Amino acid sequence: VLLEATGRAFKQYKPLSITTRGFSNSGLPQNVPLDVHPEVLDALSSKKSVVALETTLVTHGFEYPTNVELATSLEQIVRSTGAVPATIGIVEGRIKIGLEKAELERLASPAKPGSVFKISRRDIAPAIAMKADGGTTCAATLVFAALAGIKVFATGGLGGVHRGGESTMDISADLQELTRCPVGLVSSGVKSILDIQRTLEYLETLGVPVLSYGPSREFPAFFSPRSGFEVPWNAASPSIAAKILHTQSQLRMQNGVLFAVPIPDKYEAAGAEIQLAVDQAVAESEANGISRQGKEATPWLLKRVSELSKGTSITSNIALLENTALIGGQIAVEYQKLAQ
Ligand code: PSU
Ligand code: MN
């Protein structure tokens, strides 16, 4: 059964190009540094719902011990829906699909500061070859979710086109990755540290379906439920979202789908305040050159926004992550009903 479940994902999945000779009878590749947690393996082989979770938010998004508490709470929320969580990261050069508690601690609180890398697609092979530790971004988490045959991935913010991206060319690899991995990514949209309009344009160019989740077609702006930009479709319920993923799978489409879930309304007022901190942080990053320092830009901006908003952004960020974990779990459960 697992051969069927994951073998299919491998065959369709070209980017890592593992040859069929590399598969064991269980359908997972041999001789690659990949550890699937027994609970996740059991879920995949018995066709239970699984939700992938990322670890850049653990390694570069939140401070210790908030990061561990948050990762644990997201796993519990996924479980509350009946799905199995698979928190993905790289530990000592091994890809982990589902983390043990000690592994999560190791990523969340490194022995040496700066020894845990932020891993996007381009960093995967170097990090593995050098036996490094790393938190996986949306891009790398999509790669590994697709590799394992996981169909739903819940996170907070997807990367996007940075403000000023038309001259810095800072466009997150997360966007491109959504063209390669047949996974439904449930997020709260993209952060207002980014250029939301250009991000939506770019996703349109890439052919990635973008849906707002819920009754409205307004794309959410992470800290705020509203961005002022409409998208062409909305998914009103978990079952509609699941049906879209299933349709893509039936059509053997290789791209992902973005479901953008607004932060609950009660955070709207806080969102307006955080926006002021965001604007200031972006202006500072342009003045001090951080905006031209590649992968440092996003973590720096997030940290600065949290300082300037006196932690309000952290509370909102946790709330929206918990919300996407819940909805991700619900979508995964509905998807499994269709995939039986
Ligand atoms: N949004 C957050 N916190 C984060 C990130 C996004 O609220 O930690 C991370 C995600 O893992 C995302 C990555 O994939 O930042 C994007 O980074 P970049 O812009 O360098 O591609
Ligand atoms: Mn970038």
Which segments are poorly predicted (pLDDT under 50) over 5 or more consecutive residues? 1-25
> Would you tell me the overall average pLDDT?
91
Helices, by number, come to 14
- Listing every helix as H and every strand as E from the N terminus to the C terminus, the arrangement reads HEHEHHEEHEHEHEHHEHEEHEHHH
How is the quaternary structure best described?
Answer: single chain
Structural class: alpha/beta
List ligands, each type once.
pseudouridine-5'-monophosphate, manganese (II) ion
Question: Which descriptor suits the 3D outline?
Answer: globular
Largest sheet: 11 strands, mixed
Strand content: 5-15%
Helix share bin = 40-55%
* E-strand count: 11
* Rg (CA only): 19 Å
Distance between the termini: 11 Å
Secondary structure layout:
Layout: H1 2-12, E1 34-36, H2 38-45, E2 50-53, H3 56-61, H4 66-80, E3 84-91, E4 94-97, H5 101-108, E5 116-119, H6 124-129, E6 133-136, H7 138-148, E7 152-154, H8 165-168, H9 173-177, E8 184-187, H10 196-206, E9 210-213, E10 233-235, H11 238-250, E11 257-260, H12 268-288, H13 297-308, H14 312-339
Helix pairs in contact: 4-14, 11-14, 12-13
The chain binds pseudouridine-5'-monophosphate and manganese (II) ion (MN).
